[in-house]
Write a structure and sequence with these properties.
The chain is of the alpha+beta class and 282 residues long. The chain contains 9 helices and 9 strands. The strands form 2 sheets. Strands 1-2-3-4-5-6-9 form a 7-stranded antiparallel sheet. β2 (48-56) and β3 form a beta hairpin. α2 packs antiparallel against α8 and α4 (145-160) packs antiparallel against α6 (202-227). The relative contact order is 0.16. Keywords: Heme biosynthesis, Oxidoreductase, Porphyrin biosynthesis. Pfam families: Coprogen_oxidas. GO terms for molecular function: coproporphyrinogen oxidase activity.
């Protein structure tokens, strides 16, 4: 298991570096601006820690890329079982210890016509049990049919390369998960969301997790370049900030990653990295 953990951490770190390089190059290409990039190492009481990168620019209003590796004793079994949606593994494990590593990426853009994106992939171990989880979803202020088709068509391709059932299953799970029940509306245009992936073929599961990360690296820059030069009004910016309020509401009320991080004594700043820099409610 230790070798698998090392491979997962190495991949998450590699992807973090690749995304940083890509985002900074986009910033320089489209704005001729060197963005502010904050780097922060953090430690978790009880075991592990992480490395957070936050980019502030004229294309990316705020983009966060966080990699973590945390481990230790589980003291809130019931709460974590519910958060991770994996009561079977929790109930079958005699040792209440965990190890988890993952990458979380969120980008909030300056332009109301460039959608926000979120991607998270993770590898979690408990005793002799392990599984992958993650997903990627797009949240536009203004829907764009071409962007939506590009996003979902490419997601289907990477899913079909690993399992023909993945796309429809994970798309439905994404639609159900990223839904604000108190407002009866979706957060965005969906994507994929999956958890408890353990097919019995670890390498295939790991390759699928890598494919989700590469998808973000390849497809999101296309969506950015398509929309970045569109002019916007003060009213359109205002609407973007109001839509961001929905994003905040979801993360604070429903998001499992937020709850998992807080329940396992993760770094609060890293956990709240996904929050947009400016938001409004009316």
């Amino acid at each position: 298991m230790e070798e698998k953990q090392k491979k997962a951490v190495n991949w998450f770190t590699t992807l973090q570096n690749q995304l940083l390089s890509k985002f900074v190059s986009i910033e320089k290409e489209f704005s001729s601006y060197s963005p502010k990039v904050d780097h922060k190492n953090w430690e978790r009481p009880g075991g592990g820690g992480g490395y957070s990168i936050i980019i502030y620019g004229k294309v990316f209003e705020k983009a966060g890329i966080n990699v973590s590796e945390v481990y230790g004793d589980i003291t809130k079994t019931h709460e974590l079982s519910h958060v991770l949606n994996n009561s079977e593994i929790f109930n079958s494990s005699s040792e209440k210890k965990f190890w988890a590593s993952g990458i979380s990426v969120v980008a909030h853009m300056c332009s109301p016509f460039v959608p926000a994106i979120h991607m998270n992939t993770r590898f979690i171990c408990m005793s002799d049990k392990s599984w992958f989880g993650g997903g990627v979803d797009l949240t536009p202020t203004y829907k764009n049919t071409e962007d939506q088709e590009l996003f979902h068509d490419n997601l289907r391709k990477i899913c079909d390369q690993h399992n023909k059932q993945y796309y429809n299953k994970f798309k439905q799970q994404c639609d159900e998960y990223f839904f604000l029940h108190h407002r009866q509306e979706p957060r965005g245009i969906g994507g994929i969301f999956y958890d408890n992936i353990n097919s019995g073929n670890w390498e295939n599961d790991f390759q699928y997790t890598q494919a989700v990360g590469k998808f973000l690296l390849d497809v999101y820059p296309i969506i950015i370049s398509r929309n970045l030069n569109k002019q916007w009004t003060a009213e359109e910016r205002e609407y973007q900030l109001i839509k961001r309020g929905r994003y905040v509401e979801f993360n604070l009320i429903y998001d499992r990653g937020t709850k998992f991080g807080l329940l396992t004594n993760g770094n609060p700043d890293a956990i709240m990295m996904s929050m947009p820099p400016v938001v409004k409610w009316k």
